[in-house]
Each structure stands twice: as structure tokens, then as C-alpha cells.
Amino acid sequence: MVIPTAPSIRHPVIAEDIASILSRPEDWRSFAGKHVLIAGATSFLAAYLVEFFAELSERWPEDPVTIYVLVRSLDKLKKRFPHLLGQPWFCPIVQDVCDPPPVIKRVDFIVHAASAGSPKQYLNDPVGTIKSNVVGGLNLLELARKHNARLLFMSSGAVYGHGESLSPIGESDFGVLDPLDISACYGEGKRATETLCAEYYRQYGVATVIARISHTYGPGLDLDDGRSFADFVADAVAGRDIILNSDGSASRPFCYVADATAAFLILLLRGESGAAYNVSLDQEITILELALLVARLSPTPGLKVKHPPSAPARQSLFRSCGHCDISKLEKLGWRPTIMPAEGFERTLRYFIDN
User: Fold this and answer.
1) How many Cβ atoms from other residues are within 10 Å of residue 29's Cβ?
2) Which of 13, 34, 191, 250 could share a disulfide with 350, CB 3.0–4.6 Å?
3) Rg of the Cα trace of the chain?
4) DSSP H helical segments within the chain, as ranges?
5) Do 165 and 322 touch, CB atoms closer than 8 A?
6) 350 is catalytic
7) Contact partners, residue 290, CB within 8 Å, separation at least 6
8) Among 88-97, 118-127, 176-185, 315-324, where is mean pLDDT lowest?
């Protein structure tokens, strides 16, 4: 479908990404005039959804998408979305997702993205991580039940647990999660909330859909979140040599944020209620290969990658050493289109410009 253009003051990389999503053969008019609540709206992945819906509202001022952005920090909101403040369809809600949800006259779609996303974050606040997923999930599910809204829960490949390496990992493949493990707050929190989503659909008919998200990167990524790919980008932007903490032999599937955002939108529109879908790139790259790629893309010539060849590979906190089977989501018409070489080039361009 043809969508009229509209002026934008977004960063050029983000504007290009939103345009690429809009170019997909989807009926984006299905969102026109709808009311969307996004919890955790300033988080890396949710912020792209905000940008997408804002673009629709700017292009269709006669029938905008009303966006309720639920955040804990007003300062962070102002920093992330200065170009949207004051728009009549941009409605900030400053509160914790664990508090009783606000009174809203209407909501058609809800996105639950209010949770710590990196080991550095959730290991620093394990109780808060469980609460934001489970208690926040209960609050949002009740809100969806009240308004007959459709809810997307941003889950994680962490639910697959540890086990023998399966590649590709399908939606019914599960390993062990030790509930007393130091990282269990994240995986068990996601698992429990997935169960709530499934039961709210079965018992109350709430249209819930679950996105199990693998390693995702792109503009807006927190470069201080402690994960290797964020460290690599931070080093490349700063002109520092990249130093690995392992031999770099472990492999991961890295999905670019624009591709992931398109998947979330398709799931909101057409995902099977009560079901889960893998959102991932269906091929892997080793950590060493990624470090060499980012070093090569760096604006600093001659950037080196240093690694101890005898160091063991670092174990992932969840079973992601094999990539995910995305055939279920492919049946809805989605495939990732941006490979790591292009995606990390775009990511570096964003951070260098900033």
C-alpha cells in the first residue's frame, strides 16, 4: 500500500528503519485511529514501536494512533522522545508497571516491554525484574481483559533454559532452568508471565501473543549494558581496541532492531492468540567474527581485536548457542532482511552521529 510521506526530525538511521518497516506489504491502516499502550516505552525495543506508531500519526493526522507511553522516568522520556512531546496523540504515563494501571477510556493494543533486558540490569535488581514481568504482566493483562485489548508480551529465548544444544530451537524445545540460579529471576520471570498470558487467553479469552526475542541490536542500544556486542560498538565508537574475555568461539544469532520491530507489529496484527513465536535471525556469527566485523566498520582505522586464544568460551545465560527456528513466524509473512554487516554499520552510524 502507498503511504504518504511526512516530515520527521528523527535521527536519519531511525527514520530510514521506520520507512523500511512501512515498505513491508502489510495493511498498516489496521492501526489507524487505534489506542496503543506501551509499557517500558523508553526501553531499547519498545522505543522503536513508539517511533513507528508516531510516524503513522504524523502521516495520518486525520486518524492518528493514540500512544500511551508508560515509563518510570520522566527525564528519560524527555531525552528519548523530545520530538514527540506536546503531540496530542502522545500521552505519557509516569508510573511503575507494578502499580495499579491508570484509568484509560480506551485501549486496543497493549505491549508489555517493562523489564530489565541485560544481565547487568537484572542481576543488579533480581526482585524488581521478577516483579516487573509478573506483577506488571498481571496488571496489563487485567487492563487488556477490561478493554478487550490485544496484548503482546516481549519474552525472551531465556525461557528455553539450559540443555543440549539444539539448532534450530523451536517453540516447543525446552531445557532446564534452576529456580535458585543467580540468573533465574529473568528466565523464570519470563516463563511465569508467558503462562499468565496463555491462561488469560484460555480462561478469559484475552487475545495475548508472545514474542520470544533472541539477541537484538541497533540504534538506541544501551552501550553500557554489559553484553559483548554492546561493548564492541562502544569500543568502536570510542576508537578503542576490542578486547575479548573469551576465545570468541561461541556463536549467536543477532537480529537487527528494525526487523524485530516488524515482527512485533505483525504479531500484534495477526499472531495466534495464546501462542509464542521466536523472533530471531536464523543464522549465527561467532563472537570473534562479530568483533572483527565491528572493528572493520569502526571509523578509527587499524582498530585491533585482542583475545586470549586459550580462554574458554563464555556460557550464555540461556540456550542460544544455536539459532532459533523462525518458521512459525515466517508463515505470517515475516523474515529478517538486515544481516549483521549492514545492521552494525547502521548502528555505528547512529552512535557516531550522536
Assistant:
1) 12
2) 13
3) 20
4) 12-22, 44-59, 74-80, 119-124, 126-147, 184-204, 228-238, 257-270, 287-297, 327-330, 340-353
5) yes
6) no
7) 228, 229, 232, 252, 254, 340, 344
8) 315-324
The residue whose grid cell reads 496489563 is 140
Q: Per the structure block, which three cell numbers stand in for 14?
A: 531511525
Nearest CA among 263, 234, 236 for reference residue 324: 263
Question: Greater confidence, 312 or 3?
Answer: 312
Catalytic residue, chosen from 48, 68, 122, 186, is 186
Question: What span, in angstroms and rounded, lies between the C-alpha atoms of 172 and 298?
Answer: 39
Confidence of residue 6 (pLDDT cuts 50, 70, 90): very low
Domain ranges within the chain, ordered by starting residue:
12-221+255-282+318-338
| Interatomic CA distance for residues 160 and 191, integer angstroms | 9
The x, y and z cell numbers of residue 330, run together, are: 515466517
Candidates 339, 328, 317, 354; CA nearest to 122 is 317
The partner residues of 284 in beta bridges, in order of sequence, read: none
pLDDT at residue number 166: 61
CB 88 within 8 Å of CB 113: no
One-letter amino acid of 117: G
CATH code reported for the domain at 12-221+255-282+318-338: 3.40.50.720
Q: For residues 9 and 15, what is the distance between their CA atoms, to the nearest angstrom?
A: 8
CA torsion 11→16→19→23, rounded to 10°? -170
Long-range contacts (CB closer than 8 Å, 24 or more residues apart) made by 171-175: 171/212, 171/275, 171/276, 171/277, 171/278, 171/325, 171/328, 175/319
pLDDT band with cut points at 50, 70 and 90 for residue 4? very low
The rounded distance, in Å, linking the Cα atoms of 279 and 213 is 5
Task: Render pLDDT for 129-156 as a digit per residue (tens, 0 to 9).
Answer: 999 999 999 999 999 999 999 999 999 9
23 pLDDT above the threshold of 90: yes
